[in-house]
Write a structure and sequence with these properties.
Layout: E1 11-16, H1 20-32, E2 36-42, H2 46-55, E3 60-61, H3 63-72, E4 76-79, H4 83-95, E5 99-103, H5 110-123, E6 127-130, H6 140-149, E7 152-160, H7 176-186, H8 188-199, E8 202-209, E9 215-221, E10 226-232, E11 241-248, E12 251-254, H9 262-279, H10 287-306
Parallel strand pairs: 1-2, 1-4, 2-3, 4-5, 5-6, 7-10
Antiparallel strand pairs: 7-11, 8-9, 9-10, 11-12
Helix pairs in contact: 1-9, 4-5, 5-10, 6-8, 8-10
C-alpha cells in the first residue's frame, strides 16, 4: 500500500498509547511541534485516551475500530505502548501507509521486531526508533563526533536505575513489562544506541547476572573494539547513574550531560522522521536498527539464562 503523502505540511501524527510516557513526552512534544499536528490519541483504556486527548484538543480513540480510524486520519504514528504490543500495531500502521515513530525496544522478541521491520520495508514507509540519546541536543552531536573520530580500543557503559526501590515514586514502576524484563530490555537499548554507532555492530555477546535484575554484558564489535555494559532497574537509590566512556588513540571521551530533555529529543525525532519521509533516505536509527538492537538483547538474554 502506498504511504500517506510524505510532503504534507504539517505532518499528521497519531499517538498510540495514553500512559505516563505518552502523557509526559509524546503528546506535549507533538502538540507543540510547529511541523506536526497531533491527529488523535488511541489508548487501551478509554478514560486515559479521553483525558489525554482533551488536554491537547484532539480526538480520542479506543478498541480495534479506533486503531483503524486513527490510522486513516494520520500520516505517521508515534507509539508509547509496551514493546510486544507496539510491534504488531506498528506492522498494521505500516500496512495502512503510515510512517512509524517507534519507542525502544521495538519488541522483546526477534520475530516481533522483524514483523515491524518487514512491514515498513514492504510499505516503503519511513521509520525512526526513539532512542533518547541519539536525538537529545546535548548528546546526539557528541555521539556523531566519537563515531567520526574512530580509533577506539574499548568502551564502558553503565545504566543503573532504582525504579523498584522502596519509596521510589516513578509512575513507570507500575509497568508490568519493565518488571518482567528488567534493565536489560528497558535501558539496554539506550546503551547499545550509543555504543554501536561508535564501535560498529556487535559481533559477539557474553553475559553474566548480577544482584536483582542487574545484567553485565561483554561485547565485541565489528571495529575490533570491546565494550562492557552494566544494566539495572532494581538497584538501591544510592547506586543510580548513567555513564558512557570510550578509550582509544585520542584518549578518553565521556558522555556529556544534556540527554535528559525527553520532550526536546522527541521533537528532534519527529523532525528526523519527517526528513526521512520527505527524502526517502533511511535514518540511521530506523526500524532495521531497532531490529538489530532486539537481536543483540535477545542473544544477551539467552546468555544470561545459561549463566
Amino acid at each position: 500500500m502506498t504511504a500517506h503523502a510524505a510532503s504534507a505540511v504539517p505532518l499528521r501524527v497519531g499517538l498510540v498509547g495514553a500512559g505516563p510516557w505518552a502523557r509526559l513526552t509524546h503528546a506535549p512534544a507533538l502538540a507543540a511541534h510547529p511541523g506536526a499536528v497531533l491527529s488523535g490519541v488511541w489508548g487501551r483504556r478509554p478514560e486515559a485516551a479521553g483525558a489525554l486527548a482533551a488536554v491537547h484538543g484532539t480526538e480520542a480513540y479506543t478498541g480495534e475500530a479506533g486503531i483503524d480510524a486513527l490510522l486513516a486520519t494520520s500520516d505517521a504514528v508515534a507509539f508509547a505502548v509496551p514493546p510486544d504490543i507496539q510491534a504488531p500495531l506498528a506492522a498494521r500502521a505500516a500496512d495502512a501507509g503510515c510512517h512509524l515513530l517507534l519507542d525502544k525496544p521495538v519488541a522483546t522478541t526477534v520475530a516481533g521486531a522483524r514483523q515491524a521491520a518487514d512491514a515498513a520495508e514492504r510499505a516503503q514507509v519511513a521509520s525512526v526508533v526513539f532512542c533518547t540519546l541519539r536525538f537529545a541536543g546535548g548528546t546526539a552531536g557528541w555521539i556523531a563526533e566519537q563515531a567520526a573520530a574512530g580509533g577506539w580500543f574499548t568502551a564502558r557503559a553503565l545504566w543503573i536505575g532504582a525504579l523498584f526501590a522502596p519509596g521510589a515514586s516513578s509512575e513507570f514502576a507500575a509497568s508490568p513489562w519493565r518488571r518482567e524484563k528488567g534493565g536489560l530490555w528497558d535501558v539496554g537499548p539506550h546503551a547499545l544506541s550509543v555504543l554501536i554507532p561508535v564501535l560498529g555492530d556487535v559481533t559477539r555477546v557474553a553475559a553474566a547476572r548480577g544482584p536483582a535484575d542487574a545484567a553485565h554484558l561483554l561485547l565485541r564489535h565489528a571495529s575490533g573494539a570491546s565494550s562492557t555494559v552494566t544494566l539495572a532497574l532494581d538497584a538501591p537509590e544510592g547506586a543510580v547513574g548513567t555513564e558512557v566512556e570510550f578509550r582509544g588513540e585520542r584518549g578518553v571521551a565521556t558522555l556529556p550531560g544534556g540527554g535528559g530533555d525527553a520532550p526536546g529529543a522527541f521533537r528532534a525525532a519527529v523532525d528526523a522522521l519527517a526528513d526521512a519521509a520527505r527524502t526517502g533516505v533511511a535514518h540511521p536509527c530506523d526500524v532495521r536498527f531497532g531490529l538489530r538492537l532486539t537481536e543483540v538483547l535477545a542473544e544477551a538474554e539467552t546468555a544470561l539464562r545459561r549463566a
